[in-house]
Amino acid sequence: MNDRKIVLIEDNPADVYLVQLALKENDVNCQMITFANGQEALSSLCPPRTAETHATVPDAILLDLNTPKSDGFEILVQLRGTPHLANVPIAIITSSQATSDKARSARLGVVHYIHKPSQLDEFIATVGQAVKEMLRQDNPPGRAANLANSDQP
Predict the structure, then answer these.
(1) Residue 56 pLDDT grade (very low, low, confident, very high; cuts 50, 70, 90)
(2) Which residue stretches of 1-92 are H helix?
(3) CB–CB of 121/100 below 8 Å?
């Protein structure tokens, strides 16, 4: 998994660190590309059609719903509407437990909806397992099958 690229769209440096720790502790070797806001992420991931061949195509995307400059759902809609990103597996990592957010995420093809666990060990295990599942070659991308079970302890 060391040639894998994971994009993290997260504005909180502490949460960025925790995701990095979760990947390390779960032996997920990858290059992590981090964006602190939605506009930066969309500029890099969804360039104009003429520059699309030079765009970053990650193996997985981790997205916080509460990002500055662009709402997480706006980012998600844009990512899903971009042809070269349409099938990239996306996980939401958020503090929201709202049923409506989970349902909307599922409709937009999110494969994991992870409520940020408050316990460090649980965060590391949950995020690490979700990323491993997203990176498995036999896991069809763009599927919402694991959505209901992703935030279980």
Answers:
(1) low
(2) 13-25, 38-45, 72-80
(3) no
Cβ(102)–Cβ(82) under 8 Å? no
Q: By the 8 A CB rule, do 6 and 23 touch?
A: yes
Q: Which two three-digit tokens encode residue 59? A: 């193996």
- Domain limits at 64? 4-149
* Cα 125 → chain centroid: 16
CATH of the domain at 62: 3.40.50.2300
Q: Is the dihedral of CA 75, 73, 105, 81 positive or negative?
A: negative
Q: How many domains does the chain have?
A: 1
Express each pLDDT in 71-99 by its tens digit.
899 999 999 999 889 899 999 999 999 99
Binned at pLDDT 50, 70 and 90, residue 130 comes out as very high
Q: Are 25 and 53 in contact (CB under 8 A)?
A: no
Kindly state the tokens that stand for 140. 């069809």
